[in-house]
Amino acid sequence: MRILVAEDDGETAEFIRSGLEQLGHNPVVASTGVDALHLLSTAQFDVAVIDRMLPGMDGLSVVRRARAAEIELPVLLLTALGRIEDRVTGLEAGADDYLVKPFAFSEFAARVNALARRPPLQQPEVTRFDVRGIQMDLLKRQVTREGASVHLQPREFRLLEELMREGGKVVTRTMLLERVWNYHFDPQTNIVETHISRLRSKLNEGGRTDPIETVRGVGYRFVDDA
After folding, report:
1. Residue range 109-125: average pLDDT?
2. DSSP string covering the chain, please?
3. Weakest mean pLDDT among 13-22, 107-116, 136-145, 175-184
4. Is there a single domain that holds both residue 90 and residue 166?
5. Is the pTM of this model over 0.70?
6. Does 11 reside within a domain?
7. CATH of the domain at 75
8. What are 194-214's pLDDT values in tens digits?
């Protein structure tokens, strides 16, 4: 793993760097808070180990600014302050774990590995789409095209959502049956084709370009390029 180690004490930094390298990791050491934040902003790391008392910019500020910039890698905060209040402050600043000095390297390595195994943070759910002049607001259940309201029935709305959500990828007829109608079998009807036709009619009113492409024998896709 590529690991940022932000530690201003040379002996501690060397102790961590050497131990991580022996485990096969690639540590990058920064000795100031400013350098640590710069590296976090410009390079890719799997985990960051940040000392709380860094010169120039303390570790809490580095973590807060990184989180504000949507840098979401796991962070282990190191500190000589072991009170519960200090730990809470560190976690509330955006750290994922907290280790009090002095520490055994075996515990340090175990905590780093545990952080690396955590699944990535879930991305915020998309609630709006805006492609080729068509705007869909999932929260307000509204669709407009070039500023004009498009009044869709619930199934038509869901069809359009599925097509726009796939970002230009083909959505098969089977996928639409499962996602929109919750059918896990083919009802042997033209229900999908009928609703797609109605959706097209409403979206394309006034001679507008059809954004839905039929992929013969497969399904449909929302043409998201001009």
Report:
1. 75
2. -EEEEE---HHHHHHHHHHHHHTT-EEEEE-SHHHHHHHHHHS--SEEEEESS-SSS-HHHHHHHHHHTT--S-EEEEES--SHHHHHHHHHHT-SEEEESS--HHHHHHHHHHHHHSPPPPPPPP-EEEETTEEEETTTTEEEETTEE----HHHHHHHHHHHHTTT--EEHHHHHHHHS--SS--SS-HHHHHHHHHHHHHTTTTPPP-EEEETTTEEEE----
3. 175-184
4. no
5. no
6. yes
7. 3.40.50.2300
8. 999 999 999 999 888 999 999
Q: Among all chains, which residue has been given the structure tokens 């060397």?
A: 14
- Confidence (pLDDT) at 74: 92
Q: Give how many domains the chain has, as a whole number.
A: 2
Reply yes or no on whether the pLDDT at 5 is more than 60: yes
Q: What is the pLDDT of residue 19?
A: 93
One domain for residues 57 and 145: no
Print the domain residue range for 162.
128-222
In a shared domain, residues 10 and 111: yes
102 with 195, same domain: the answer is no
Distance of alpha carbon 102 from alpha carbon 107, whole angstroms: 11
Domain boundary, last residue among 117, 138, 170? 117
